[in-house]
Amino acid sequence: MREDRSAGRVTLAQVASQAGVSLSTVSKVLNGRADVAAPTRVRIEGLLDEHGYRRSSPTPPEAPLLEIVFHELDSAWSMELIRGVQNVAKATGMSVVLTETGTRHSPGADWVEGVLRRRPLGVVLVFSTLPDELKKKLWSRAIPFVIIDPAGDPEPDVPSVGSANWAGGLAATRHLIELGHRRIAVITGPEDMICSLARLDGFRSALGMAGLEADPALVRFGDFHVGSGHAHALDLLDRPDRPTAIFAGSDLQALGVLEAARVLGLQVPEDLSVVGYDDIPPAQWSSPALTTVHQPLVEMAEEAARMLLRLRDTTDQTDARIELGTKLVVRNSTAAVGAVGAEPSGGGGAGSE
Amino acid sequence: MREDRSAGRVTLAQVASQAGVSLSTVSKVLNGRADVAAPTRVRIEGLLDEHGYRRSSPTPPEAPLLEIVFHELDSAWSMELIRGVQNVAKATGMSVVLTETGTRHSPGADWVEGVLRRRPLGVVLVFSTLPDELKKKLWSRAIPFVIIDPAGDPEPDVPSVGSANWAGGLAATRHLIELGHRRIAVITGPEDMICSLARLDGFRSALGMAGLEADPALVRFGDFHVGSGHAHALDLLDRPDRPTAIFAGSDLQALGVLEAARVLGLQVPEDLSVVGYDDIPPAQWSSPALTTVHQPLVEMAEEAARMLLRLRDTTDQTDARIELGTKLVVRNSTAAVGAVGAEPSGGGGAGSE
């Protein structure tokens, strides 16, 4: 799209005459109106693309909208991201349009036509991608989009917001080492997700810096859900040389680890230290409250929404990538190895909300 | 509005001439356009109301929207309700517009103008109310609205969806009585919320049917959050004649009770049985997994969205009230009184997700 942008501007009148249609037909297509025959629509989109047409100053709608698109609404995460976009929307008098694409990892053509009609100020995509054709349509209408990509696997040429996964894995593991733990297990996410690998590398680097080696038997890949944390922990804690600490790849996995410990009659943190990842609200509500790596989900969504508003003011599509920092939040699920009653009294977390 | 509805229909032309403005000015007001002077707008709204004007067959928008309005986005609840509305929207090719009113318990005039411009198929209000003036505006534009009111305190004349709070309190308490518990404490919600009182009455009735009396010292009012469950439980469990079971008014309060028990060195369910309320996802993730009263939040939101679509097809605003059933979900936080290891092994809940 680079050259397109530098190309001389084409007028809609020119596009109309080349397409052999009226000006109003072209603007119907621009605005995603349904009453244009498919072949005509395709021909016009082709010309808009070929000339790199971009609506210069989109008239700001009277009821401005921000769109947020999820592949799947999942209660642990999605609410934090919705809240972040909502914060920016509320502060600027906008409303938020929510779409769930369901099974497909990218929204369909029907969705984009709706967006063209609604003329939002921008689109935030969570964990989803856009086919080039849809990207071009949004670009030609000057509707910017940003991908929130906590998985850490951004598409080139698309602005995205993520967080520092490697540093998160490092901080969690260092905390456990400082508490004297040496047999530390890790249950990370799926092997094919960049964020799982980044966190695992952070884990390994922390061990390495302390002159320790990761025992391959203590490295597990899970799926970020409670069940996988529970199953891996039952297996890990059943070993004679069981780990004294487990770093879980998500708070949900960590909750599964807590339940496995309870079932096996192990006290957390006295017999086992547990660190989660994400710091979603349930991490504060568990007993004991979870020590976890705070992933700034709300702030990531706020940043994505602000990027959209900034992108509107430039005619140039940036390919910015922003990674927000992660930080360790120490609560009651970790203690010095072998410590008894080392945990702060009063049961912190639960009371603190 | 009853008489209004039965009144002979007035035409927009009549309204225009009575207001001394052009027809297009009237339709601008109908569609919430900003470019009409305030006094004119007020005069026209007045005439529309006086004549009980109602847009007869609203043109279905090309990108149909459902609106959901929250007083406050709270991660424990809101996600379930959003998901319910989203389910219906997705099934019918609609998008969902999300608005958070923040501190105010009803959306403002700015919000309603946005709604008039967006022309949604309907509006779902969560825990919020509409001033009569806004109700009239939506009614005259034939934009139906439904209130999701889990608090059980519906406004007359507004369609609403709730759930069976009294029956929920009854079922939770009966379950504990059947397990042999006699010293049963209850931590319910705020004293001024109908749902708290309904659940408490269900609790008292269950005791009464079993020939038991509620010990006033074991009846507490909380605020539905983790902290109040935690604080009340610390106090209740510190008594010489401590209860053997606690029925909490929400899952969050129940999580606070679990943490209090852990801090006091009490095992759940061996030393203390705990029942929650709501059955939000974290109830399955806690250790032990919570026995709780399932409040069908997703289904309540789905029902509200379906009511909107039905209301569109009638010219008459119904004042329907639907209450969906609640049901007890038995997990691992309750056991026979004094039982040891009575709980199913394997740690059910956490593994089951």
How would you describe this structure to a colleague?
Two copies of one chain form a homodimer. Chain A is of the alpha/beta class. Chain A has three domains: 39 residues, no CATH class; 127 residues, Response regulator (Rossmann fold, 3-Layer(aba) Sandwich); 157 residues, Rossmann fold. Chain A is 41% helix and 15% strand. In chain A, the strands form two sheets. In chain A, strands 2-1-3-4-5-11 form a six-stranded parallel beta sheet, sandwiched between helices. A six-stranded mixed beta sheet of chain A has the order 7-6-8-9-10-12, sandwiched between helices. Chains A and B meet through helix 5, strand 2, helix 6, helix 10 and helix 11 of A and helix 5, strand 2, helix 6, helix 10 and helix 11 of B. Chains A, B: InterPro entries: HTH_LacI (IPR000843), LacI/GalR-like_sensor (IPR046335), Lambda_DNA-bd_dom_sf (IPR010982), Peripla_BP_I (IPR028082).
Give the arrangement of secondary structure elements.
The structure is a homodimer of 353-residue chains.
Chain A: H1 2-6, H2 12-19, H3 23-30, H4 38-50, E1 65-70, H5 78-91, E2 95-100, H6 109-118, E3 122-126, H7 132-140, E4 145-148, E5 160-163, H8 165-178, E6 184-188, H9 194-209, E7 219-221, H10 226-236, E8 245-248, H11 251-263, E9 273-278, H12 282-285, E10 291-294, H13 297-312, E11 321-324, E12 327-329, H14 348-352
